[in-house]
């Protein structure tokens, strides 16, 4: 039973990665379909993560509850995928039963977030939703007229600025592909090549392991974009070396943590916030990369200087010659893997979309890894890398699907202007909170207003 369940979970994980690769190759679906499909698969993975442990199968109630939540999340979110055309035809106005679907989807999204990343994001989301209700009861300048349950749920579930807003869109396009590329790079051994090069370059300097950790983390940051992955990759090598040369355990851990954090701002692969920034300010990702390069270099210069001064103050020695890897040997064995990073950078610099460039970077690492026996990846190893990427996507996506009352985007603004025949704020559209809640009559009234506005 456990083996079958694990195979199903892995199949869904591969479907999530496969969906991202497919849409990168042949073209993305419209935003609601792309984002809802991505979220539906991610929610299933989030609710059934316990399938990896024996205890999950020992508790039938826990297993049934998790499976029920996973199926419910897939159906409620998948409703957007299957009914997008109908929703678009009626300008995404919610019918009565869709309000209940929206409530269920919002609750499941919040619970999925709690399970994956804990309470902080959940508390922020609940506070934002509570603020939408509590406006009339708050003092100035925080007060507002308040919004009805129907309007809030419609905004979160059917709008383009709630659950299915820009952050989730970034996760469903850029982040999924970049994480997949990073997982394959790490599995092929490219991460080890970068660490060996960094250690060979800086190991002879004062405080060698610490300076190697800084340089290694900066190099790893070019392919990972996440602090956690950076620590897991470079920390397993650098922290034991730092302790052997005299660093206190807490200092060694702090140096590795700070150095790895910079990986999120080290081009070309940065954290998800960089892609969200590009979407929000409507600038090419290549411009974000150029701006981030200056910040990243200054960050690592400052960290490197701090580590050097700490080593001088405490008298930390450099690494012994027999502890240093050979940079030439590392490049000879795995340097060809780094060409995939060149493919990604060239694609972005040439003006291709990040998703298109990342797709060809994924293909290139799969081909380059087969050139040498030491880096060759078997089909099972590739599948495990893709499953690991899906797990990372699931974790990262939880930061972006959390329900929020964002400022309405262009689509919401256009829909509001057409419907009301005015230029009022999009958040002031529709009836007051105390108005009748019949959704069908609201749609008919809206259509009459559109006709009246058009005739004028």
Features:
single chain, mainly alpha, 0% strand, disordered C terminus
Concise account of the structure shown:
The chain is mainly α and 456 residues long. The chain contains 21 helices and no strands.
Oligomer: single chain
**Helices and strands, in N-to-C order?**
HHHHHHHHHHHHHHHHHHHHH
Number of domains: 2
- Compute the number of helices: 21
E-strand count: 0
Write the SSE topology.
Elements: H1 2-26, H2 31-47, H3 54-58, H4 60-82, H5 84-89, H6 96-117, H7 119-134, H8 149-157, H9 166-188, H10 190-202, H11 208-221, H12 227-244, H13 249-261, H14 272-281, H15 285-314, H16 327-334, H17 339-349, H18 354-368, H19 379-401, H20 410-420, H21 439-455
Helix pairs in contact: 1-2, 1-9, 1-19, 2-4, 2-9, 2-19, 4-6, 6-7, 6-8, 6-19, 9-14, 9-18, 9-19, 10-11, 10-16, 11-12, 11-13, 11-15, 12-13, 17-18
Task: Give a written overview of the molecule.
The chain has 456 residues and is an all-alpha fold. The chain has two domains: 2-168 and 404-409, no CATH class; 190-374, no CATH class. The protein is built from 21 helices and no strands. The chain has helices at residues 2-26, 31-47, 54-58, 60-82, 84-89, 96-117, 119-134, 149-157, 166-188, 190-202, 208-221, 227-244, 249-261, 272-281, 285-314, 327-334, 339-349, 354-368, 379-401, 410-420, 439-455. Helix 2 crosses helix 9 (166-188), helix 2 (31-47) crosses helix 19 and helix 9 (166-188) runs parallel beside helix 18 (354-368). It is globular, with a radius of gyration of 25 Å.
